[in-house]
Amino acid sequence: MNWKKILVGTVLTVVFGIGFFSFTQDDKNFEIAKNLDIYHTLFRELNMFYVDEINPDKLVKESIDEMLMLLDPYTNYISEDQIEDFRFMTTGEYAGIGALIGKQNNKIIVSELYENFPAQKSGLKAGDIILEVAGKSTETMTTEDVSTLLKGPANNPVKVKLQRYGNSNPLEIDIIRERITISAVPYYGMLDKNTAYIRFTNFTENCSDEVKRAFLDLKKNNPDALVLDLRSNPGGLLMEAVKIVNFFVPKGEEIVSTKGKVKQWDRVYKATNEPLDTTIKIAILVNSNSASASEILAGAIQDLDRGIVVGSRTFGKGLVQTTRDLSYNTKLKVTTAKYYIPSGRCIQALDYAHRNEDGSVGSVPDSLITQFKTKKGRLVYDGGGVVPDIKIDNEQYSNLTIGLVTKFLIFDFATKFSNENASIALPEEFTVTENIYNQFSNYVKENKFEYKSASENILKELEESAKEEKYFGLAENEFIALKAKLEPDIDKDLNLFSDEIKKILKDEIVSRYYYQKGAIRSAINDDKGIKQTIDALHSSEVFTAYFEPGTEIK
After folding, report:
1. Are residues 177 and 196 both part of a single domain?
2. pLDDT tens-digit profile of 539-553?
3. Which of 243, 281, 317, 506 is catalytic?
4. Residue 503 catalytic?
5. Cβ contact 501:444 at 8 Å
6. Which member of 109, 206, 292, 312 has the greatest number of CB atoms within 10 A?
7. What is the pLDDT of residues 161-193, one digit of tens each?
8. Whole domain around residue 505: which residue ranges?
């Protein structure tokens, strides 16, 4: 038997033995000690007698993960090999090449490049297939394996062998790793002469400084309105949200409070600094993927009647996590409190285990929600997420468009296009012309793309039900005729759904030349949410009407 395992088992026995006597103060602690001892003895017996060799790290990690899943989705164990990823999530920094990778047809591909970082400066392109990293073949690797190889000490080179569209021979590129800091504000600018716009994508350390710099730069244009775009921003650090709200509300204003089991940790967060601007009209853009700190910012601005919220109901994450250090350089991210925005409501979804397919909060019965009031007396409710003042439904795409995205036809065509065309017009000016769209349509058909429409799937289910209930024979001809009409016709459907396909194709192509910032600039002109927001901000009467006392936001 492995002597290391015997030693570990002995040490654990001593530790748990000591722990056992310290836990006998009351019944609850006795139960904890008893079950820890059971777990330890079970693991020891497995290790000694199970017929095959076991992997202790894997077994313990999976047992911990399963245990924490019984609590909530946000209490997580962070193993030693996950520490770097955790640090990146909270700081936005890591040492690597500055590229996102993915898996397509069992091959590792470069899916996106960050502008002015090593991968882009060294000549990598989105769509490149990574064959080797540091001399190691990626053929059997996961994206996590390859990502680990690409990361490493700053200023150290890593050799990447790749296959590029249109090149018969593989390319080898030496990339010097750098300390990568991903900006929380990928783009800001003026939507028109009166309306400033800031898009930010997460609440990492010091993101408030980035937002502040962007706003002060935009202030030089004397805007009378500001749009903060938090769509699909998953949140992050609570204090960063507090600081950003403080930019627009008076010093001393309560922004958010937290309450949990450990009362000494309960806190009220107020605006501690003089604001940057308390008069500019504000609109916050959100969607069902705007969560956590995004909801604090949007909810506080709404509760304090400092601005309006536009979009769809937010995700509904009103839980606060604290990171606790564990042994052997591991950590526990544990839910320690709930947070409450100024009206007193908590935006945590009442049932976070069951959501709509898009991740959004489902409908909540009136009997389960509580009414609160904003600073000016508007009526708001808890139950899950922040409900916008101006509601915009999430965009629905056809099965054809979804299929073209999930089967990488749009991505692959953009790869082909960008390797065959050295340049395109500026993001705001580039359009998918009929010529480009015809090229794409031919590409789709050449690749023998197949899909099923949603109507076809529903008709099939109806046909099966009719056969089970013996009604099919009565309407067989009608079923046949309807099936013929609903059967996908690639030429017809590429024409029918061309507007939505062109929009996604345009974003993908523009990102190959102008990266993330360019894709945002390109999408603004066609953005329904931005258009409706500007309309509301431009009319003083319309904007003011949103803050009438007694107005119900539900």
Report:
1. no
2. 989 999 999 999 999
3. 317
4. no
5. no
6. 292
7. 999 999 999 999 999 999 888 899 999 999 999
8. 399-532
